[in-house]
Amino acid sequence: MTRKFSLALVTGAADGIGWATAQCLATSGWHVALLDLNGELAKERASFLGEGHTGWACDVTSIEDVKSCVTEIKATYGSIDALVNNAGIADQTVPTLVQDIDAFDRVLAVHLRGTFLMSQQVIACMTEQSRNAEGVRGAIVNIGSIASTGGIPGRNAYCAAKAGVLGMTRALASEWARRGIRVNAVAPGYVKTSLVQKLTEQGAIDGVSIARRTPMGRMAETYEIANAISFLISPQASYITGVVLPVDGGWAALGAPDTVLGPIEV
Ligand code: NDP
Q1: Are 132 and 5 in contact, with CB atoms under 8 Å apart?
Q2: Can you spell out the DSSP letters for 201-243?
């Protein structure tokens, strides 16, 4: 029996990459459930997208929030065909010796516990659903980072969390492949969002240096990450699971000082 995929759940969907992803998926014909800490904004965004889209208040670190949201979304739509584990926060950017332990724990909780809790609840729904023509029941995309594989001084929790997201992606992909659930990750470079804006204002990052270090010579726009996420959950990616797709303008490919790149053409 085949089934048309239709409902995608996106966490952290009220802003940044999550909001761009919700818009991209809606344009591609998906119904989108937008989850965010800021439930009011998620609902506003959903009504902007129109009929068939819904907004939900959800802290992805709270098992109560996650369980009740996933249960209500499943009851509303009948199926959950895709999950984008996007919710995230920036790290404290201070030297290791003065880092706050509660802040460290919160970064790990949002990225790792959040990805785990959401995946656990959604996979339980997906396994009860029928397969499509390619044998797929559902697809999950997690959000890594260039910090998944490269170290950034002072950002211990974020680098550990994002490395962990890739590990969890591979573990879930291996465990669930035979049950028809695909799990992949994208690893963005620097993207123009309010998260990056805040880091810039704190002096933790500097846009000119980032552009210089990026072979393509610029940061990403949010829709460029959304397009990659949209591909990975789509039927076009039906035989892809357990991969990490860098969407970083060539950042991870560069194995030499940025002086080899030459000037940025405008
Ligand atoms: P934004 O801050 O722009 O958006 C993140 C959204 O997630 C916000 O609406 C935020 O709400 C929400 N959120 C935060 N914590 C929770 C939570 N516990 N439960 C539910 N929602 C939550 O971030 P980006 O769009 O930049 O980042 C999205 C993802 O992409 C993150 O996982 C990030 O680590 C990753 N990423 C970002 C890069 C970048 O350069 N921007 C690069 C690589 C990866 P609130 O505003 O209230 O906190």
Answers
A1: yes
A2: HTTS--HHHHHHHSTTSSPBPHHHHHHHHHHHHSGGGTT--S-
Query: Residue 225: exposed, middle, or buried by beta-carbon count in 10 A (0-12, 13-18, 19+)?
Result: buried
Closest ligand 1 atom number to CA of residue 158: 34
Q: What is the pTM of this model?
A: 0.97
223 is catalytic: no
Continuous H helices in 78-183 = 101-108, 114-126, 156-176
Query: Which residues, in sequence order, are bridge partners of residue 185?
Result: 142, 244
Q: Choose one of 37, 121, 158, 197 to mutate for the ligand 1 pocket test, by most ligand atoms within 8 angstroms of C-beta.
A: 37
Residue identifier of the C-alpha nearest atom 18 of ligand 1: 59
Side-chain half-sphere of 46: how many Cα atoms within 13 Å? 25
Per-residue model confidence as pLDDT tens digits over 61-82: 999 999 999 999 999 999 999 9
Band of residue 173 on the pLDDT scale cut at 50, 70, 90: very high
The values of phi and psi at residue 17, to 5°, are: -65, -35
- Specify the residue with its C-alpha closest to ligand 1, atom 3: 16
Q: 188 has which bridge partners?
A: 247
